[in-house]
Amino acid sequence: MKTVTGLFDNYDDASDAVGELEASGVPHDDISIVSSNADNQHDDDGSKAADDAAGGAGLGAAIGGAGGLLAGLGLMAIPGVGPVVAAGWLAATAVGAVGGAVVGGAAGGIVGALTDSGIPENDAHVYAEGVRRGGTLVTARVDDQLVPAAERILGQAKSVNLQERRGEYQADGWTGFDPDAENYRSNEIGRDGARDVNRV
User: PANTHER family under this entry (predicted)?
Assistant: First the structure.
Protein backbone atom coordinates (compact mmCIF):
# COMPACT_ATOMS: atom_id res chain seq x y z
CA MET A 1 0.00 0.00 0.00
CA LYS A 2 1.06 3.55 -0.68
CA THR A 3 -0.27 6.81 0.71
CA VAL A 4 -1.17 9.38 -1.95
CA THR A 5 -2.07 12.93 -0.93
CA GLY A 6 -3.39 16.05 -2.62
CA LEU A 7 -3.96 19.58 -1.30
CA PHE A 8 -6.78 21.70 -2.71
CA ASP A 9 -7.55 25.37 -2.18
CA ASN A 10 -11.21 24.72 -2.97
CA TYR A 11 -13.33 22.25 -0.97
CA ASP A 12 -15.52 21.40 -3.96
CA ASP A 13 -12.46 20.38 -5.99
CA ALA A 14 -11.34 18.16 -3.11
CA SER A 15 -14.81 16.65 -2.84
CA ASP A 16 -14.76 15.89 -6.57
CA ALA A 17 -11.38 14.19 -6.14
CA VAL A 18 -12.81 12.00 -3.36
CA GLY A 19 -15.60 10.91 -5.71
CA GLU A 20 -13.06 10.11 -8.43
CA LEU A 21 -10.95 8.08 -6.00
CA GLU A 22 -13.99 6.02 -5.07
CA ALA A 23 -14.93 5.55 -8.72
CA SER A 24 -11.40 4.30 -9.41
CA GLY A 25 -11.82 1.57 -6.79
CA VAL A 26 -10.27 3.05 -3.65
CA PRO A 27 -12.37 1.82 -0.68
CA HIS A 28 -14.13 4.45 1.44
CA ASP A 29 -12.24 3.36 4.55
CA ASP A 30 -8.93 4.19 2.86
CA ILE A 31 -9.82 7.80 2.03
CA SER A 32 -9.53 10.74 4.42
CA ILE A 33 -10.40 14.41 4.12
CA VAL A 34 -9.41 17.31 6.37
CA SER A 35 -10.80 20.71 5.42
CA SER A 36 -10.33 24.06 7.10
CA ASN A 37 -13.49 25.48 8.58
CA ALA A 38 -12.01 28.71 9.95
CA ASP A 39 -14.39 30.70 7.78
CA ASN A 40 -17.40 28.59 8.89
CA GLN A 41 -18.18 27.63 5.29
CA HIS A 42 -19.35 24.18 6.33
CA ASP A 43 -21.71 25.61 8.97
CA ASP A 44 -23.19 28.25 6.69
CA ASP A 45 -24.02 25.88 3.85
CA GLY A 46 -26.22 23.59 5.91
CA SER A 47 -23.46 21.05 6.51
CA LYS A 48 -22.79 20.66 2.80
CA ALA A 49 -19.61 18.80 3.73
CA ALA A 50 -21.58 16.30 5.79
CA ASP A 51 -24.10 15.89 2.95
CA ASP A 52 -21.25 15.28 0.52
CA ALA A 53 -19.82 12.61 2.78
CA ALA A 54 -23.16 10.88 3.22
CA GLY A 55 -24.29 11.23 -0.38
CA GLY A 56 -21.15 10.75 -2.39
CA ALA A 57 -17.94 10.71 -0.47
CA GLY A 58 -19.12 8.05 1.97
CA LEU A 59 -16.34 8.72 4.42
CA GLY A 60 -18.16 7.27 7.41
CA ALA A 61 -15.39 6.52 9.87
CA ALA A 62 -15.37 6.77 13.62
CA ILE A 63 -13.03 9.45 14.86
CA GLY A 64 -11.90 9.23 18.44
CA GLY A 65 -10.99 12.36 20.29
CA ALA A 66 -11.73 14.77 23.07
CA GLY A 67 -15.42 15.07 23.68
CA GLY A 68 -16.18 11.50 22.67
CA LEU A 69 -16.70 9.72 19.42
CA LEU A 70 -17.56 11.61 16.24
CA ALA A 71 -19.03 9.55 13.44
CA GLY A 72 -18.28 10.41 9.84
CA LEU A 73 -17.50 13.94 8.80
CA GLY A 74 -17.38 16.08 11.89
CA LEU A 75 -16.28 19.44 13.16
CA MET A 76 -13.26 19.62 15.43
CA ALA A 77 -10.70 22.21 16.46
CA ILE A 78 -7.02 21.47 16.06
CA PRO A 79 -4.63 23.90 17.76
CA GLY A 80 -2.33 25.48 15.21
CA VAL A 81 -4.68 24.52 12.37
CA GLY A 82 -7.94 25.86 13.76
CA PRO A 83 -11.43 24.51 13.15
CA VAL A 84 -11.66 21.75 10.57
CA VAL A 85 -14.20 19.38 9.10
CA ALA A 86 -12.62 15.95 8.94
CA ALA A 87 -13.33 12.28 8.40
CA GLY A 88 -11.45 9.09 7.71
CA TRP A 89 -8.35 7.30 8.88
CA LEU A 90 -6.00 10.31 8.80
CA ALA A 91 -8.22 12.36 11.10
CA ALA A 92 -8.67 9.38 13.42
CA THR A 93 -4.91 8.78 13.48
CA ALA A 94 -4.08 12.45 14.01
CA VAL A 95 -6.49 12.78 16.91
CA GLY A 96 -5.48 9.40 18.33
CA ALA A 97 -1.83 10.44 18.16
CA VAL A 98 -2.42 12.75 21.11
CA GLY A 99 -4.40 10.24 23.12
CA GLY A 100 -7.68 12.02 22.54
CA ALA A 101 -6.53 15.22 24.21
CA VAL A 102 -6.83 18.45 22.30
CA VAL A 103 -3.53 20.06 23.15
CA GLY A 104 -0.79 21.82 21.23
CA GLY A 105 0.49 18.50 19.96
CA ALA A 106 -2.80 17.75 18.20
CA ALA A 107 -1.83 19.77 15.16
CA GLY A 108 1.49 17.98 15.11
CA GLY A 109 -0.65 14.86 15.02
CA ILE A 110 -1.52 15.62 11.39
CA VAL A 111 2.16 15.85 10.50
CA GLY A 112 2.86 12.69 12.49
CA ALA A 113 -0.03 10.79 10.91
CA LEU A 114 1.16 11.76 7.42
CA THR A 115 4.79 10.86 8.09
CA ASP A 116 3.80 7.57 9.74
CA SER A 117 1.93 6.69 6.55
CA GLY A 118 4.99 7.34 4.38
CA ILE A 119 4.67 11.01 3.41
CA PRO A 120 8.04 12.81 3.65
CA GLU A 121 8.11 15.11 6.69
CA ASN A 122 8.90 18.25 4.69
CA ASP A 123 5.82 17.57 2.51
CA ALA A 124 3.68 16.81 5.58
CA HIS A 125 4.56 20.26 6.96
CA VAL A 126 3.35 21.95 3.75
CA TYR A 127 0.14 19.92 3.74
CA ALA A 128 -0.60 20.83 7.38
CA GLU A 129 0.16 24.50 6.72
CA GLY A 130 -2.07 24.41 3.64
CA VAL A 131 -5.01 23.23 5.74
CA ARG A 132 -4.18 25.82 8.39
CA ARG A 133 -4.41 28.51 5.71
CA GLY A 134 -7.80 27.39 4.42
CA GLY A 135 -7.17 24.38 2.21
CA THR A 136 -8.51 20.85 2.04
CA LEU A 137 -6.32 17.77 2.25
CA VAL A 138 -7.37 14.49 0.63
CA THR A 139 -5.32 11.43 1.50
CA ALA A 140 -5.77 7.87 0.26
CA ARG A 141 -4.11 4.58 1.11
CA VAL A 142 -4.07 2.65 -2.13
CA ASP A 143 -3.02 -0.77 -3.36
CA ASP A 144 -0.09 -0.76 -5.77
CA GLN A 145 -2.26 -1.30 -8.87
CA LEU A 146 -4.36 1.80 -7.99
CA VAL A 147 -1.38 4.11 -7.33
CA PRO A 148 -1.17 5.56 -10.87
CA ALA A 149 -4.88 6.42 -10.94
CA ALA A 150 -4.81 7.90 -7.40
CA GLU A 151 -1.72 9.98 -8.22
CA ARG A 152 -3.42 11.27 -11.37
CA ILE A 153 -6.60 12.15 -9.45
CA LEU A 154 -4.84 13.88 -6.55
CA GLY A 155 -2.27 15.53 -8.81
CA GLN A 156 -4.92 16.87 -11.16
CA ALA A 157 -5.09 20.35 -12.60
CA LYS A 158 -7.12 21.70 -9.68
CA SER A 159 -4.77 20.55 -6.94
CA VAL A 160 -1.97 22.61 -5.44
CA ASN A 161 1.52 22.15 -6.85
CA LEU A 162 3.25 21.27 -3.58
CA GLN A 163 6.76 22.38 -4.59
CA GLU A 164 5.55 25.76 -5.83
CA ARG A 165 3.43 26.29 -2.71
CA ARG A 166 6.37 25.38 -0.46
CA GLY A 167 8.48 27.96 -2.32
CA GLU A 168 5.80 30.63 -1.92
CA TYR A 169 5.49 29.93 1.80
CA GLN A 170 9.25 30.05 2.24
CA ALA A 171 9.49 33.30 0.26
CA ASP A 172 7.15 34.77 2.90
CA GLY A 173 9.49 33.62 5.70
CA TRP A 174 7.78 30.33 6.56
CA THR A 175 10.15 27.65 7.83
CA GLY A 176 7.77 24.85 8.78
CA PHE A 177 4.41 24.03 10.29
CA ASP A 178 4.12 25.29 13.87
CA PRO A 179 1.40 23.53 15.87
CA ASP A 180 1.67 26.22 18.54
CA ALA A 181 1.02 29.11 16.15
CA GLU A 182 -2.13 31.13 16.58
CA ASN A 183 -5.02 30.21 14.33
CA TYR A 184 -5.60 32.38 11.30
CA ARG A 185 -8.57 34.70 11.57
CA SER A 186 -11.44 34.10 9.16
CA ASN A 187 -10.48 37.15 7.08
CA GLU A 188 -6.97 35.69 6.63
CA ILE A 189 -8.19 32.29 5.46
CA GLY A 190 -8.30 31.52 1.78
CA ARG A 191 -5.43 33.71 0.63
CA ASP A 192 -3.79 30.62 -0.82
CA GLY A 193 -6.72 30.27 -3.20
CA ALA A 194 -5.53 33.43 -4.91
CA ARG A 195 -2.09 31.91 -5.44
CA ASP A 196 -1.20 30.00 -8.56
CA VAL A 197 -2.46 26.44 -8.52
CA ASN A 198 -1.52 23.59 -10.80
CA ARG A 199 -4.35 24.36 -13.23
CA VAL A 200 -4.23 23.60 -16.94
Answer: MEMBRANE PROTEIN (PTHR36109:SF2), MEMBRANE PROTEIN-RELATED (PTHR36109)
